[in-house]
Specification:
Largest sheet of chain A: 7 strands, mixed
Shape of chain A: globular
Number of helices of chain A: 0
Structural class of chain B: mainly beta
Radius of gyration of chain B: 14 Å
Largest sheet of chain B: 6 strands, mixed
Number of strands of chain B: 11
Number of strands of chain A: 11
Radius of gyration of chain A: 13 Å
Oligomer: heterodimer
Largest interface: A-B, 20 and 20 residues
Shape of chain B: globular
Helix content of chain B: under 10%
Order of helices and strands of chain A: EEEEEEEEEEE
Order of helices and strands of chain B: EEEEEEEEEEE
Number of helices of chain B: 0
Structural class of chain A: mainly beta
């Protein structure tokens, strides 16, 4: 298995632009998680889905952030409009029946 | 106060040393205690976990949980340069069966093992 796939691996954008991060979970996994990692705040859970349904989005920082999971093999995290404080590494992780979480390689986002 | 506190280090030790990494937590509902290892510019990967209190050993690694004092430890024996990474503790509640609730990560401790 290729593991969790994330794209792009790096994204540099200007403040105010829309950013879309993509994730393909491991085939057969039914839970998907979006995390954000910064030096100041560490690794924070933004939102997670179970069977494509958002279960807990309490970690989403504000309305500029939205996440979707249209099917079992694809999810997006969108930031619109982006701000410099959104600069971070965004990780997607997946698991089966909320067991061990497997993380993707992350997307390093820089907003200038 | 954060739910999980972890000293970020950095921690630098010579090869062969015994390493002790620690976390404290405040949520009494935590029953699963995970340790993740994260190499530079990679995603975290599960190293080992324990359920409830006690010790668990896996090769050179030992995880220890003391629920009475809400203290989590990871010991690395005979440390190697390849152990150089960030170690994150991540406790979780029990979601039923073998499932666990959302992970709450500590800040991570940066470990360097030098030859």
């Amino acid at each position: 298995d290729a593991g969790v796939i994330q794209s792009p691996r790096h994204e540099v954008t200007e403040m105010g632009q829309e950013v879309t991060l993509r994730c393909k979970p491991i085939s057969g996994h039914n839970s998907l998680f979006w995390y954000r990692q910064t030096m100041m705040r560490g690794l924070e859970l933004l939102i997670y889905f179970n069977n494509n349904v958002p279960i807990d989005d309490s970690g989403m920082p504000e309305d500029r952030f939205s996440a979707k999971m249209p099917n079992a093999s694809f999810s997006t995290l969108k930031i619109q409009p982006s701000e410099p404080r959104d600069s971070a590494v965004y990780f997607c992780a997946s698991s089966y029946l909320r067991g061990e979480q497997y993380f993707g390689p992350g997307t390093r986002l820089t907003v200038t | 106060q954060k739910e999980v506190e972890q000293d970020p280090g950095p921690l630098s030790v010579p090869e062969g040393a015994i390493v002790s990494l620690n976390c404290t937590y405040s949520n009494s509902a935590f029953q699963y205690f995970m340790w993740y290892r994260q190499y530079s510019r990679k995603g975290p990967e599960l190293l080992m976990y324990t359920y409830s209190s006690g010790n668990k050993e896996d090769g050179r690694f030992t995880a220890q949980v003391d629920k009475s004092s809400k203290y989590i430890s990871l010991f690395i024996r005979d440390s190697q340069p390849s152990d150089s990474a960030t170690y994150l503790c991540a406790p979780a509640t029990n979601a039923g069966g073998t499932s666990y609730g959302k992970l709450t990560f500590g800040q991570g401790t940066i470990l360097t093992v030098h030859p």
